[in-house]
Amino acid sequence: MFTGLVEEVGTMTGMRRQGEAMSLSIAAKHIMAGVQLGDSIAVNGVCLTVTHFTKEQFTVDVIPQTYRNSNLKDLKSGSKVNLERAMLAGARFGGHIVQGHVDGIGVITGLHRDGNAYVYEIKPNTRDIFKFLLPKGSITVDGISLTVSDVGEDKFTISIIPHTRAETVLQYKALGDTVNLESDIIGKYVAHLLHFKDSSVAEREGKVNESFLMEHGFV
Predict the structure, then answer these.
(1) In the chain, which residue ranges form alpha helices assigned H by DSSP?
(2) How many percent of the chain have pLDDT more than 90?
């Protein structure tokens, strides 16, 4: 589990592809302290497992499912990536619960300044993500825990402070670039529980409505 607080921006030093499978080598400094084989590291918000490491870099494997559902396939030698180690029990929890399981890819369709804030407009590649988006709710963008500013028909916006931009790969992003998106896990679980019915409930209830919620103690 992660918190969405990026610890370091790493640099891609190598990549091997075999079809839709990849092996990525990433140079880093701060996060290499105490790294062990099998550790989980979020790379642009994708939870990956360390398969090899030295003092200066680590290697992770990317399976076809991850390749297809994230923007890791767009990386090349020299690309910058957000890095976060899995959180420690008892550590300060500064962001929100992040699994490192990408729900979709977004395209940056707008970028402007609003005072000291940088405002990014993002268009997801799936409509499913919108049921988990609400103003002032949480969203993970390339592994960064951020607050949703506004939600439109097919886009949403985030506003970030200069420090967040300077310490993450967002400083390198431009119009048309892609970002990995992960919805708030709490919202996903609530939606799943509300729509999950055993056979007896399914026979009595055709949809989730007020009476269904009252009967099952939600209201």
Answers:
(1) 64-69, 162-166, 185-195, 199-204, 210-215
(2) 76
